[in-house]
Amino acid sequence: MFRRFLRRVLPRREHLDARWYLRPFRALLHDPALWAVHRRGVTRALALGVFIAFLPITPLQLPLLAAVTIWWRVNLPVAVVAVFVNNPLTLVQMYYLNYRVGTWLLGREPVGFPDSVSLRLMIEQLARIGAPLFLGALVVGSLAAALAYGVLNGLWRIALLWRFRRRGRRQRERLERL
Prior knowledge:
mainly alpha
């Protein structure tokens, strides 16, 4: 069920071979493990994509994701789709949650919003919020990745059991007809 759905919606390797901007990476993208649709590769790719989505390195998320995906040999399209949990609509909420979790873990008071914004003030604020933001990102990202992995793994197993039971029912019905 999930396998057929993923094969239908995810781009094929041959389709991406035609893209000019992926030509330098063509040798790396020919690994069959990056395109295989099986439970282990897909669940790990989802967890990896969700974890990297929570890291506050927005312009570097996709290059980091591609490198780790190729290194771990998990499904590349699923990981890329999963990293887009972090999008312009959710970016501020995710980073604020990371920051609040980080301040709570470090036992610090959250920094309030300034009345005016300047480049100097932003650099000073970044130095004060950097440690809680990254610590919170690691903790929240790990928890979200574990949750995504567990939920998808459980759903995949339920679908597999349902399919095996349905197959057994059909076989029993055929035997009864004979």
